[in-house]
Amino acid sequence: MSRARHVFHSAELALQARAGVPQSYTEKVARALRSEMPRHHRDFFESLPVVFLGVMDARGRVWATPAVGQPGFLRAREPEVLSVAGRPVLGRTLGLDLRRGAKIGVLGMELVSRRRNRMNGTIRSVNAEGFEIAVDLSFGNCPQYIQTRQLDWPTAGPTAEARLTGDWDAATRAIVARADTFFIASRAAEMSDSPVDGVDVSHRGGRPGFVTVNADGTLSFPDFSGNRFFNTLGNIAADGRVGLFIPDFSTGAGVFVTGLASVDWTSDRIARFAGAERIVDVVPDEIWLCAHALPGPAPLVERWALLQETGIWAAPIQSTSAL
To answer: pTM for this one?
Structure first.
């Protein structure tokens, strides 16, 4: 069996083929997905004050959420295990599944340097401080679409306060409208012992206005050229359930969304958005507005230079995907 089939499930491989990714490239990058964290990844995680997680709830829905702490709250003393001395933001409110054996996605992103590394794993144990994650797949990501930000966070930030909105309201729409960054969690259709069956969390970035709430209440965003792994889109094709965390870096607030996604390959719709290769539409199931989702603001220092080659939505429109 090829290496690619050990690290990508069938829907990811099918999406790679549909997008014209050469098999030689797939096999090459498959070797970069490891079953343990290399030393530089371990050091990187241990330096972070925040990590972004993809976690399922008791109903199998998936959510994207941060976990925050002082640098050192993440520990990777072993290549195969990441310890988290903390809990996901809104973990209890959203009923997130942090039991032993639960699948979880991890994204470490250093906003001041645009470095990021990812890890998909399985919760190995739970303790009074947090939990330990056994590595299923560990891999790096390039700095594309990441905005450089300064973290102005207090040692102990205010407690997160959330409310279920029921629909998009003025506050949640405003955060979406000015967002240049969000995080998306997705899941495979099955949760088995295989490393390809799990939860993933990824970053999306663009110019403010690159994500929009449509007239019908769906949310849409472009899929730009990336690493061509198709982890997120492959999971959407296989299962469809996604979670979004859309931070407001000016205040530390955030919008949490869980729902059902689909991918639109319609050429005329894609052509209307500069830089887009596909469009992703999300039908929300729940929308939460959270004050103090992050400990404080993260002022913009510099946008990724090539964002000027990408577009924004001219106005909210009716999505066209079959959901």
So the answer is: 0.95
Residue 81: in which H helix or E strand, if any? strand 81-84
CB atoms within 10 A of CB 46: 17
Residue ranges of the chain with per-residue pLDDT less than 70: 1, 315-323
C-alpha Rg value of the chain to the nearest Å: 18
Residue 322 covered by a domain: no
Q: Give domain status of residue 321, yes or no.
A: no
CATH number at residue 179: 2.30.110.10
Tokens of 254: 């955030």
Instruction: Report the residue count for the chain.
Output: 323
Whose CA is closest to 19, among 274, 239, 227?
227
In the sheet with 74-78, reading across from the earlier edge strand, the strands are: 62-68, 50-56, 103-110, 115-126, 131-141, 81-84, 74-78
What's the pLDDT tens digit per position in 201-217? 999 999 999 999 999 99
322, 277 Cβ separation under 8 angstroms: no
Whether 93 is covered by a domain: the verdict is yes
Determine the structural domain holding residue 258 and report its residue range.
4-309
Is residue 320 a part of any domain in this protein?
no
Q: How many domains does the chain have?
A: 1
